[in-house]
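Memo to structure team: turn this sequence into structure tokens by end of day. - J.P.
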Amino acid sequence: MVEHYEHQFISFINAEMEQDPAHDVNHVLRVVKTAKSLCAIEGAKLEVVLPAAYLHDCFSFPKNHPDRARSSFIAAEKAMDFLAAIDYPSEYHDDIGHAIVAHSFSANVYPQTIEAQIVQDADRLDALGAIGIARCLQVSTRLGVGLYDPEDPFCEARAPNDRANSVDHFYTKLLRIAETMNTKSAKEEAEKRTAFMKQYLAQLGAEI
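Reply from structure team:
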């Protein structure tokens, strides 16, 4: 049933989503793909997971915006209005809204349902691996952040500062994401992607 709404979800995010290189429709489609897979493994409700995955970034403040932590709350409100407008079954609305709110790092809301846990896991997995490295560099470039500190590239004798160096973001956030995964299957995938990122850092170190 829910798959019948997918074209409407895609049309909505194409029209409404404020896209940047790291948060574009391709990001959403990757999150949806991962969320579908996790949903099947975990036996969760696709009727909640799928719309939440499609709509989780239908509104987002820029990374450096002072109200960044409110993005997922506004996205959830926007998604609820849209779902009501297309007559999506109302019994799923509250759980979809919660999943959208809880997906965000900056919102700091614990995912209370397996569906919310899956959407959060799927979104966080997209910050890891080859895609995660590329997205990190895209965001850093947009914010005018350099690649690494020439004196201490890998934060061995200093606190990481990801407002000054892209590589520092690995140490402030990215290498810790696997620990935050909710589902077993997502944690296993996160560990694989994290291992790849560590290989990248080792190669970068050899080159510089």
